[in-house]
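Lab notebook, bench 4. The sequencing result for the construct came back, and we need a structural model before the next group meeting so we can plan mutations. Quick request posted to the team channel:

Model the 3D structure of this chain.
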Amino acid sequence: MSITRNHRRFFLSEVSGILPQPHLWYSTKEAVKALELFLDAGSTFSESLTYRYDLVDLTRQCLSKLANEVYLDAISLYQKKDSHGLNAHARKFLEIIVDIDTLLAADDNFLLGPWLESAKSLAITEKERQQYEWNARTQVTMWYDNTETEQSKLHDYANKFWSGLLKSYYLPRASKYFAYLTRSLQENRSFQLEEWRKDWISYSNEWQSGKEVYAVKATGDALAIARSLYRKYLRP
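Done. Here's the predicted structure in token form:
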């Protein structure tokens, strides 16, 4: 895979169609600078609901862009057959997912729970309740026209950055993906695309049929969490 810059955007050329590629449409440095300014205003605006919403969203975006860069580095290390470097970057990528989930949990607007509970509340019968929850879970993950080894063309079509969804759905999926990359190097064979697809499609369908209950109210101090994550990952 090669990366070129043009008008502050990244254009990604895939060397292999096997490995999914992130989109890096604008400068991470500029986004982090905006976050610095936002955090500086925290003492003044921390009681504002709109400030906290934007703070969580901007911090989430900066961490997402960092995760994209960590992923690209991980793939580069995989292509160089550097298993130690790959594993280190995989751990960092997964840790970022967990930390973003914690951040999102601090604002009511970034929770999976209300989406699922609102869908279930429309039901009259238990059968409807189960169907509506399945519909809600499927809509934000992988639409249900997949086969055992071919994911829906609309997988992640309506994906959301919601606490609960990241930790219960995307974290296990990413963990499986990196495990397949690691196994590929350990066994000195190509990435097992069909096995990987079968594994994560099966997990997706299992998650869609799940009945786990997720939080509907925020927990944690958004400003304190954002400041902590800025110091951990983004401060120069």
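The radius of gyration is 19 Å.
Will bring this to the meeting.
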